[in-house]
Amino acid sequence: TNFGKEAIKEMNRVGIVIDMSHSAEKSTLEAIEISEKPIAITHANPSFWHSALRNKSNDLLKALAESSGMLGLSLYPHHLKDGSNCTLESFCEMTAKTAEMIGVKNIGIGSDLCLRQPDSVVEWMRNGTWTKSKNFGEGTKKKPGFPKQPTWFEDARGFVNLEEGLKKIGFNDIEIKGILGNNWYNFYKNI
């Protein structure tokens, strides 16, 4: 929309990063095109690995990388292949394939964790205060609440597991440090 274009320009002017994690394909591609600064997708995964509602296509991720944007790989079970049962190896293999596709410097971790929050929080996020019909987001009527985290990343202590998994899959120390934080630091510093 015209208002959306104006919002992006104003966000660029004042230094606010545009995050399209919760946005659809077309609007994300348009934001990449309109923004004078690189945008971020702070918490999503490639849809080639798992076709969740918010995971992103190869074409979109390539456009993101070409504009020097950042992808924060999500650890939220609804975004993971096999959900709560996703293995560290599978996640690290996906990370390696994504790095081959868009470059390791365009990847970070965007955990999307909501630790120790009651299910009422996710219900409020999905439905707000005034909604009459229930929206289960990426959950279902039978599983409406927060899903269980994979055992290898239950909280921030899981970064040690990620470091080991990335090393095992073949990333070097500089690449691992980039994925686990330095790439985000450099992205935000440049914005």
Strand neighbour order, sheet with most strands: 1-2-3
**Largest sheet, if any?**
3 strands, parallel
Helix content: 40-55%
Number of helices: 7
Give the C-alpha Rg.
Answer: 17 Å
Q: Give the CA-CA distance, first to last residue.
A: 24 Å
DSSP, total strands:
3
Q: What is the chain-wise order of helices and strands?
A: HHEHEHEHHH
The rough form would be described as globular
SS class: mainly alpha
Give average pLDDT, whole number. Answer: 91
Low-confidence stretches: none
Beta-strand residue fraction: 5-15%
Q: Which characteristics define this entry?
A:
globular, single chain, 45% helix, 191 residues, 3 strands
Describe what is shown at a glance:
The chain has 191 residues and is mainly alpha-helical. It contains seven helices and three strands.
What's the helix and strand layout?
Blueprint (H helix, E strand, L loop, with lengths): L1 H13 L10 H10 L5 E5 L13 H9 L3 E4 L14 H15 L4 E3 L9 H9 L31 H11 L3 H18 L1
Parallel strand pairs: 1-2, 2-3
Helix pairs in contact: 4-6, 6-7
Give an overview of the whole structure.
- Strand 2, helix 4 (88-102) and strand 3 (107-109) form a beta-alpha-beta unit.
- The protein has a 3-stranded parallel beta sheet.
- The chain has 191 residues and is mostly helical.
- 45% of the residues lie in helices and 6% in strands.
- It has helices spanning 2-14, 25-34, 58-66, 88-102, 119-127, 159-169, 173-190, and strands spanning 40-44, 70-73, 107-109.
- The relative contact order is 0.14.
- The two termini are 24 Å apart.
- The mean pLDDT is 91.
- It contains 7 helices and 3 strands; from the N terminus they run H-H-E-H-E-H-E-H-H-H.
